[in-house]
Amino acid sequence: MIKDIEVSNDNKTICDKEIAILREHFPVCFTKEGKFDIELLKEVLSQKIDIAREGYELKFLGKGYAKLLASLDTTTVITPNIEHNKLSENIESENIYISGDNLDGLKHLLKSYANSIKCIYIDPPYNTGSDGFVYNDSFNFTSEDLQHKLSVDEDEAQRILDLTNKGSASHSAWLLFMYSRLQLARDLLTIDGFIFLSIDDNELANLRRLCDDIFGEENFVSQIMVIANPGGRDYNQVAVTHEYLLCYSKTDDAELNEIEKKASFKCKDKDGGYNIRELRNRNPKFHSGNRPNLFYPFYVNPDSVDEYNCCAVSLYPSKEFHIEVKPYNSKCDESVWRWGKKLAGENIVENNPFESQVVAREKRKGGWNIYEKNRRSTTKVKSIWDESGLRTEDGTRQVRELFEENLFDHPKPIDLIQKVISIGSDDDIVMDFFSGSATLAHSVLEINSKSVDVQRKFIAIQLPEKLDLKNQNQKNAYNFLKSIDRPTTLDYVGIERIIRASKKIKEETKADIDYGFKHYILNEPNQNTLDKCETFDKASLIPDGSILEDFGVETVLTTWLNYDGYGLNVNAEILDLDGYTAYYYDKHLYLINPDFTKENVVALFEKYEAIGSFNPENVILFGYSFNEWSVTEMLEQNLKILNDTEKNLKININVRY
């Protein structure tokens, strides 16, 4: 576990992630010794690769270091808040709140939730100079470590150490802080997922470049302007009324949902009102070369005209349908249709063209356009959000209504976050890894209560930051948390908000939704425990039960379940193996407790022999609890006996430290 991770981290470099991707997709480009060979890649791609050629890219002090931090595994463990999680409203909940550094939280989540989060919203530090942002980390690298791992000289290594160890609010420090987190966040998004990032003028330009670098400039969706203060903040030469909301997709397969509008239809048929909407996709990136299934002809019958000057169409040429129309733009460049041929065919009634949902209309200057009959009462979201409910004061009021006083500086309003998750997700997981006052969690509960057919789940991460008693709102939060006997850290402001918001929404709506959440704390083992792990001698054949006591069985089990891809919402089955307690879920059996005897081994393999669904493929041992050689030998001997007699079991025995 921790010891294994520390050994692995010692060998990590900034290119490990890229090498892993190449190994997955181009295994032929690696030698027998496992080394990557650029010449083999050139052969595979059948083209020259000029790896020395320079191009446009984002550079800042510490960029390589940020990549290194993203590649290192976390040495924290996941401790469940057992008392909270076993409450009736939380025990079956699929919502998750994590107290801990979001860098560690993202790394843990990637073990189980990679490619699973549809929508991420974050409100990171704006680095205004007065918002308290100072970058400082606790990674104990030496100058020699960085020279080796980052391939930099001594002067560059020292500059990076000064940036990370002495505390800085420079642009480079902010970019370093954000880069590693966004790099991890990208890997959590589904292939059609979105990330939304609130920001103001101070770091807007840098954040655009940063996201272009991580998500790809081609996946930039919009820079939305949010009118957060219509009166304007007049302490500068221009009274600023807005903030920004950047939106990026993971791939160009992602498509935002539309928002509700008041529909007004100009046309009508037997199915009701409609407007005609051009079927050609106006995205200039698409053409027959990259979207061949969307490039095909329609055929128009110019003599079949309805009262709206629209003509019947077909997918097949004939004497009547003789005018061919392909998706070309006004410059005669190729584009594509928004529908594939199959969907178009389903919307054309060949024997009664006026019942078709696809029609044609002649252009004033000649030529034809193809249209769909659009009956939707939704529209694309605009790039300026100026409606009421999005103001900073709305967020402040909403928190005050729950706590009867101000506990948080500038919380985002619920309407803003609801709009984000409405266009960015459906029945999906949404996440905020700068959770703050937990507006996203509150917003998910509220939007779920309004539409019980679409139920989103949230994951929130918040650093258990000490409250600043010099700040009046944080002092109020401190006094409030102390009065209800809660830890006086920022994460518990969010936790209390979710609890109070849940109660309020449930009383007001009576909706049958998930009002609870599971709570987990990320803990770094203390130095005494780390010293025990470091000095533990596997060869001595003497287990050290005190190490398990330090971690706790629940912590080890929760961390391992997540590590093995099962997430944070599963409950392992407790197995009694002749007096020994083991834990079983799906393909994994966890042996964590000490004193695993021959009798327990016999009981285990009797379960394997029995007819039923018990067939874990992996037996995982907590190494500190066992004489590793003795236990693995017993397991392997019994496995051999069982295979010789009845079954051909393939079981992996893995000891973790």
Q: Can you describe what's shown?
A:
- The chain has 657 residues and is α/β, with parallel strands linked by helices.
- It has a ten-stranded mixed beta sheet with strand order 1-21-2-20-19-3-4-6-5-18, with helices on both faces. Strands 22-23-24-25-26 form a five-stranded mixed beta sheet, with helices on both faces. Strands 8-9-16-15 form a four-stranded antiparallel beta sheet, with no helix packed on it.
- The protein is globular.
Q: What would the average pLDDT be, to the nearest integer?
A: 90
- Low-pLDDT segments, ≥5 res: none
The end-to-end distance, rounded to whole angstroms, is 4 Å
Structural class: alpha/beta
Briefly say what this structure is.
Strands 1-21-2-20-19-3-4-6-5-18 form a ten-stranded mixed beta sheet, sandwiched between helices.
List keywords for this structure.
single chain, 657 residues, alpha/beta, ten-stranded mixed beta sheet, five-stranded mixed beta sheet, 21 helices, 20% strand, globular
Give the secondary structure arrangement, pairings included.
Elements: H1 2-10, H2 16-25, H3 38-45, H4 63-71, E1 77-80, H5 82-85, E2 96-99, H6 102-113, E3 117-122, H7 143-150, H8 154-165, H9 171-188, E4 189-199, H10 204-215, E5 220-227, E6 242-249, E7 259-260, E8 267-269, E9 272-278, E10 280-281, E11 298-305, E12 311-314, E13 323-325, E14 336-337, H11 341-346, E15 358-362, E16 368-374, E17 378-379, E18 384-385, H12 392-403, H13 414-424, E19 429-432, H14 439-450, E20 457-462, H15 472-483, H16 490-509, E21 518-523, H17 527-535, H18 545-551, H19 553-563, E22 573-577, E23 580-585, E24 588-591, H20 598-609, E25 618-622, H21 628-645, E26 652-656
Parallel strand pairs: 2-20, 2-21, 3-4, 3-19, 5-18, 19-20, 24-25, 25-26
Antiparallel strand pairs: 1-21, 4-6, 5-6, 7-17, 8-9, 9-16, 10-14, 11-12, 11-13, 15-16, 22-23, 23-24
Helix pairs in contact: 4-9, 6-9, 7-8, 9-10, 13-14, 14-16, 20-21
